[in-house]
Specification:
single chain, alpha+beta, HipA N-terminal domain-containing protein, HipA_N1
């Protein structure tokens, strides 16, 4: 399993995990769910449920990935597999993201 913290305006809102079978789970933190002033990170990941499951990387996160020649440069420079969307996301979305969401690798994770 690999994991990344999902930050909204520099506050951890939840955790995105890729299971060993390749499926994904996004889970809001308990504190984030309990605070009605904290928004959902996306309309497609509502706070009406704490945990969301998907057989592929959620479109909200997939749309944060570079495309075309930018993706090729990132993968070559960082020695990443072009098909490892979660790996690319964790590598670039910590600092190179547009908007309020950042993706930060969980310490101690491969």
């Amino acid at each position: 399993m690999r994991a990344a913290n999902i930050l909204f305006k520099d506050q951890v809102a939840g955790v995105l995990m890729q299971q060993d079978d390749g499926t994904f789970i996004f889970r809001y933190l308990d504190d984030w769910m309990a605070d009605s002033s904290k928004p959902a990170i996306s309309l497609t990941l509502p706070k009406s449920q704490q945990e969301h499951h998907s057989s592929y990387l959620f479109p909200f996160f997939f749309n944060m990935l570079p495309e075309g020649s930018n993706k090729q440069v990132v993968c070559h420079h960082m020695k990443l597999d072009a098909d490892d969307y979660f790996g690319i996301l964790r590598a670039i979305a910590k600092t190179d993201a547009i908007g309020a969401i950042r993706v930060v690798k969980v310490e101690g994770q491969p």
